[in-house]
Amino acid sequence: MKILIIEDELKTAAFLKKGFMEEGDVVDVATNGIDGQHLSATGDYDVIVLDVMLPQRDGWWVLQEIRKRRAHQPVILLTALDAVSQRVKGLQLGADDYLVKPFAFSELLARVRNILRRCHVRAEDVLHYADLEVDLLRHKVWRAGEAIGLAPQEYRLLAYLMRFPGEVLTRTRIAEQVWDMNFDGDSNVVDVAIRRLRRKIDDPYSGRLIHTLRGVGYVLETRD
């Protein structure tokens, strides 16, 4: 998943970012309402975790701006305000869920996954292509029925390729979505990661799935 966290408490934002990244997600963070609204309008996120009490513009304003542009964008509100009227206000403005601080990360993660299922952001929890299978919930991978152990970075890269089978993905796009970084044309980080992934996904099996388009990027597809 790609997640936007809009939270002005730096420790809380760092805690949430670390938790989601350990789950294999890509995370952006904004610490005020203006920056948060800008990222929500220009980025493509599976879910937005939005604090209500923010500097410059509060979470209510950000939520309303999000709903003007993206009616179905999943949003979960975080707040220290436990009054029923505040929860009702958040839901009336279009929040998908509401979590009162302090909370356990495991509860937030469960609510995020529930929202994604309910909003059909993720069409399925297990991705299939040819004889390759990726379980998005359990972070497990199989090819030809054999379990394959991947490092977190390798798993994120494969999951991203699996979401776009047959589509050529540029190095810039892969770097942005998998590593949350701007791609430097002189960097070989994507190429090195692809080589490591191929050793586990392709080399031991008949029929390569990950192919290179020289000068462009990579594509996951079967070829005769």
From TrEMBL:
GO terms for cellular component: cytosol; protein-DNA complex. Residues 124-222 bind DNA. It comes from the Bacteria. One of its GO terms (biological process) is regulation of DNA-templated transcription. This is DNA-binding response regulator in two-component regulatory system with CusS. Residues 2-116 form the Response regulatory domain. NCBIfam families: cztR_silR_copR (TIGR01387). The modification 4-aspartylphosphate is found at D51. GO terms for molecular function: phosphorelay response regulator activity; transcription cis-regulatory region binding. SUPFAM superfamilies: CheY-like. The gene is czcR. Pfam families: Response_reg, Trans_reg_C. CDD domains: REC_OmpR_CusR-like, trans_reg_C. Keywords: DNA-binding, Phosphoprotein, Transcription, Transcription regulation, Two-component regulatory system. Residues 124-222 form the OmpR/PhoB-type domain.
